[in-house]
Amino acid sequence: MATMRFNVGWRRFFPFIGYHHVLMILIAIAVILLSLLLAGCSSSSPLIPDIFLISLYYQPYPPVYDAAQVDPGVTNAIANIVNQAMLEVRVGYFGICINPQGGAFLCSNNASALAAQVTMDQDPWNLIWVAETFQNNIVFPYLIIVAIIFAFVCFVLLATFPGWHEEIDERGSEHDVKPFPSRPVSQVALALIFVASVFVLVSVLWQHTASVAASTIVADLGNGSVGSGVGTAAMVLGWFGFVLFIIVTIGLLVMILSIKLLDEIVDND
User: Could you point out which of 37, 55, 98, 254 has its C-alpha 20 to 30 Å from the C-alpha of 158?
Assistant: First the structure.
């Protein structure tokens, strides 16, 4: 009996979920993903240090030799300087995390404060300073912030769309009806989410390109002693957020064109 009541209640509720509600859910998910991306390395909370743009770390490995190297023997000097260091530095949009001894990460938005927590032997190649330089001179989070603001405004505009409600016709019968949303409001929402999509695309492309380039350069400079990597979680969050924004953009465009087509058909009749 309880299961039957639940099924009946769900069937009555589901038809009242409008097309714009689905778009609102997609926007909310995208905003959450992008917010997590921005929050990466901002605190030592669980999973937050795992959201990073680039990782720099001391790790001995066979150096790469090439004919373009003027002094291939410099790798031995670097190995002597690095010695037994095992520090790892991760860079986010608004924070830096360090792991001096292979334990828990220490995170802060102040690189100087983090540098004060380690000794010269733990960071002989000044990776914390390199990470700070990368964050200050290359990382640019503000396009994503503006995109989140635009997406939130679009979310609010979608919330103003009329939903399903019951009306009584001339015969006294009840019918579920849903008026068309305002065309100007729909167009503004479409413009906002489109601009947000472009901003996220530019940011994610810049983030990906800059991280890969910086990672490659650092690894080459620390040939044999310093490694680097690009944060997979940050890339996934950024690209998924962009894809969701694009889906919402296409969804709004299809809705506007469909309403326009229906209006033209009605006018012709």
Answer: 37
Helix, coil or strand: residue 165: strand
Q: Which helix (H) or strand (E) holds 158?
A: helix 142-159
Find, among 28, 198, 158, 40, the residue nearest to 105 by Cα.
Answer: 40
Taking the C-alpha atoms of residue 201 and residue 76, their distance in angstroms, rounded to an integer, is 42
**Cβ(242)–Cβ(204) under 8 Å?**
yes
Residue 169 in this model has a pLDDT that exceeds 90: no
Average pLDDT of the segment spanning 91-99: 92
The rounded mean pLDDT for the chain is 84
φ/ψ of residue 209, rounded to 5: -65, -45
pLDDT number for residue 7: 46
Tell me how far CA of residue 183 lies from CA of 21, 24, 62, in angstroms.
17, 17, 63
Closest C-alpha among 60, 131, 150 to residue 91: 131
Mean per-residue pLDDT, 176-193: 78
Write out 69-123 in H/E/C secondary structure.
CCCCCHHHHHHHHHCCCCCEEEECCCCEEEECCCCCCEEECCHHHHHCCCCCCCC
Output the CA torsion sign for 15, 21, 22, 28.
negative
**Are the C-beta atoms of residues 37 and 52 closer than 8 Å to each other?**
no
Flag whether pLDDT at 176 surpasses 60: no
Angle between helices 232-268 and 142-159 in degrees, nearest 10: 40
